[in-house]
């Protein structure tokens, strides 16, 4: 029946994604030591939150947790983490909500890195395109494991302001490249950020150079009629 088919489809998608999760580690592929653990955590989450189910990208979140704790703790952490902050909106791909977060990120870019913001705005780069994947997995699917782990350290210690800092940090590190790029090259870089090989230390130093008040950031997300960010210089 319908429920059985949905379960089969969910398990098939999980199975496909296990092979794509940090493939360079070979921990999560069919012969890897964490293969079954990752599958069980993801299947457990999809049963626990049937309204969300399994969504591509969750395997990276679960894998980050499994690399740092046992499977039971990883499952509890995943349920708690994905119930918080922006994660539900992003995994449900609620585009009106993602658009609000993108607007708030644009506002921060305009304030802290006006040249970069002005250039991207002039090119017409839509921040929703890259932000969805960056924030959905808290950068774990787009950065090297080393760099992503450092962002996760910040996230666990400082909360969601770390994601805003990491986003601004990436733009700061890549600003010289981005300012020389046309639309196609800029969009490619931002949607293939792993290829830029951003160093973990450089990213954290850049991210920490920004002071972010998450309550203020979230107020911009929640503003009923968000004003457009100020134009670039």
Textual characterization of the structure:
The protein has 2 domains: about 1-85, Orthogonal Bundle (Helicase, Ruva Protein, domain 3), CATH 1.10.8.270; about 90-220, Cyclin A, domain 1 (Orthogonal Bundle), CATH 1.10.472. The chain is mainly alpha-helical and about 230 residues long. It contains 14 helices and no strands. The longest helix is centred in the first third of the chain and has 19 residues, at about 1-20. This is Rab-GAP TBC domain-containing protein. GO terms for molecular function: GTPase activator activity; small GTPase binding.
Record the SSE blueprint.
Blueprint: H1 2-20, H2 35-48, H3 58-66, H4 71-82, H5 87-91, H6 95-112, H7 114-123, H8 127-136, H9 145-158, H10 161-173, H11 175-179, H12 183-191, H13 200-208, H14 214-222
Helix pairs in contact: 1-2, 2-3, 2-4, 3-4, 6-7, 6-8, 6-14, 9-10, 9-13, 10-13
Q: Tell me about the biggest sheet? A: none
Number of domains: 2
Q: Give the integer mean of the pLDDT values.
A: 94
Strand residue content: under 5%
Q: Are there runs of 5+ residues with pLDDT below 50, and where?
A: none
Tell me which CATH architecture of the largest domain applies here.
Orthogonal Bundle
Radius of gyration: 18 Å
Question: What's the CATH superfamily of the largest domain, by name?
Answer: Ypt/Rab-GAP domain of gyp1p, domain 3
Tally of alpha and pi helices: 14
CATH class of the largest domain: Mainly Alpha
Structural class: mainly alpha
- The helix/strand series, from N terminus to C terminus, equals HHHHHHHHHHHHHH
CATH fold descriptor of the largest domain? Cyclin A, domain 1
Helicity range: 55-70%
